[in-house]
Design goal:
The protein has about 500 residues and is mainly alpha-helical. The chain is about 65% helix and about 5% strand. The protein contains 24 helices and three strands. Helix 4 runs antiparallel to helix 5, helix 11 runs antiparallel to helix 12 and helix 11 runs parallel beside helix 18.
Length: about 500
């Protein structure tokens, strides 16, 4: 490890290899997960653009409208996952390069630079971004936000006295920031990462002007974005989604912050389960060690100063996660948590490294954490995500191909139980991202059946005429006593999965 750290360019060669090692199966796996099938079936109308534009992601809407209109089969969805994989390779390489510059400026240890760079490859969030085509645009938001923050931070850091920023710097950082928000709001938090890392290295409660200017500019970008969003809604005569409503209940959001995002972030890339005893213990243990270590490192400060320092850290973390902190819904999904978790991971890893004074122990810690990131990522992506979805899709497609006949007009679809994967694959359920069957959700049966019929018949009109009647479970299906004849087909996902 010492030799690797002395030759940092080696990491740039390792990153593409690690991406292929962890995410190789996207080149071969066929499945349609949740929103993917809706976007695919509606690829000939304007639905995809409207969905994204009404939620404040207009650039993402344009991308999805263009991309999904270019494909016609479920198998082709893998092209978008490959697109995301390549995009995340480039994003990780740029992050590693810029992060190295910041680390050198603020004197972060090389081991922390190494681990922070690996995190961009192995994050649980990246597993979602690559495996779920409905998240393929997020790397573009990260790239734009990363460039925006870097431009401002580097220029501020170089100035010792009076702050003078050229119009090109201000406009460039602003445009990149707004673009980041229009791709995916939560991705723009990456803008604050260099300012956040700089602040925690100062070990002072009062942030200096660099941090203050960074935060003010960050909030100003949100303001510009908000007015542009409202303007474009009027241009396209659209209503804003209720998911964009601002909710400023401070105590409710504070409770959400400490019960949702924070436990996930302090789980150090281990899939966090709110109901899991191990998850709860592990999170509390890590955050306790971090708190003790931080007070020990800053022992020259008074207790009051250290408390204010901690409060400022949590405030900056809240700002990094700002879109979810002001939204009406409290939903700490991993697809919103990449930047937040990245900031916490680097901060905690830096604190843990401090506990090891001798070089050999620091080397062991770096190797252990590197393997931890790679193994948790490989397991999460391949076993928690890909395996069950592949089987679910395979059994459904096989059944439809075997049993669909010309003349079938009605399909009775009994949706999968939420815990279907748990009994077969012994998986943990987390939100709508891990451990939940795609056909558990009520918006999946109709488009997936129609898409499969379309692929079988090559006739979209026939597929559109299929009437899909869905039931939450077999009991409700039996109670309805439907009329079954040669024009009907019954799909029971739970039975199919266990055959």
């Amino acid at each position: 490890m010492k030799e690797l750290l002395s030759k940092p360019t080696i990491l740039f060669y390792c990153i593409p290899f690690l991406f292929l090692l962890i995410y190789l199966r996207i080149f071969f796996a066929d499945y349609a997960y949740l929103d993917e099938i809706h976007f695919l079936w509606h690829n000939t109308d304007n639905t995809n653009f409207i969905i994204f534009h009404s939620t404040g992601r207009g650039l993402a809407g344009l991308l999805y409208q263009k991309f999904f209109s270019s494909i016609s089969t479920i198998g082709q969805l893998k092209l978008f996952r490959i697109f995301s994989l390549i995009g995340w390779m480039l994003t990780a390489l740029l992050w590693t390069y810029l992060y190295k510059k910041w680390a050198e400026l603020i004197n972060l240890p090389k081991q922390i630079w190494w681990l922070g760079s690996l995190y961009a490859v192995c994050s649980v969030s990246v597993c979602i971004y690559i495996g779920w085509a409905a998240c393929m645009q997020i790397f573009l938001g990260i790239l734009a936000g990363l460039a925006s923050g870097h431009i401002l931070f580097i220029n501020l850091y170089k100035q010792q006295k009076a702050v003078r920023l050229s119009n090109w710097i201000i406009v460039g950082a602003l445009l990149l920031g707004v673009a980041s928000l229009f791709f995916y709001q939560s991705s723009f938090g990456i803008f604050l990462i260099p300012f956040f890392l700089y602040y925690i290295q100062t070990k002072k409660a009062k942030p200096d002007r660099r941090v203050i200017i960074g935060v003010v500019f960050y909030l100003a970008v949100y303001l510009v974005y908000y007015f542009l969003f409202k303007y474009w809604l009027k241009v396209y005569h659209l209503e804003a989604s209720n998911r964009t409503e601002i909710h400023l209940d401070f105590f409710r959001k504070l409770s959400f912050f400490f019960s949702g995002p924070l436990p996930s972030a302090f789980s150090m890339n281990l899939l966090f389960r709110p109901s899991g005893i191990f998850s709860q213990i592990f999170y509390v243990l890590v955050i306790t060690i971090w708190l003790i270590t931080t007070f020990k490192r800053n022992k020259h400060n008074s207790i009051a100063t250290n408390i204010l320092f901690m409060a400022m850290i949590f405030l900056l973390l809240g700002l990094i996660y700002l879109p979810s902190m002001i939204a009406e819904e409290n939903f700490a999904s991993y697809r919103t948590l990449f930047v937040f978790n990245l900031a916490v991971f680097i901060m905690v890893a830096d604190s843990l490294l401090y506990l090891f004074k001798q070089e050999k122990y620091r080397r062991f810690f770096t190797i252990f954490m590197s393997l931890w990131l790679i193994l948790t990522s490989f397991y999460t992506f391949n076993y928690q995500f890909i395996n069950p979805l592949q089987k679910e899709y395979k059994v459904l497609r096989s059944f439809v191909q075997t049993n669909y006949k010309s003349g079938i007009r009605n399909v009775y679809f009994i949706r999968a139980d939420k815990s279907l994967f748990r009994s077969t694959f012994h998986l943990n359920i987390y939100r709508d991202e891990f451990g939940v069957p795609s056909t558990y959700r009520d918006w999946v049966p109709e488009p997936i059946i129609k898409q499969m019929v379309f692929e079988i018949t090559k006739n979209r009109k026939i597929a559109e005429e299929i009437n899909v009647i869905q039931f939450e479970n077999a009991e409700l299906f039996n109670q309805s006593k439907p009329s079954l004849d040669s024009t009907t087909l019954v799909v029971n996902m739970n039975d199919l999965f266990h055959q």
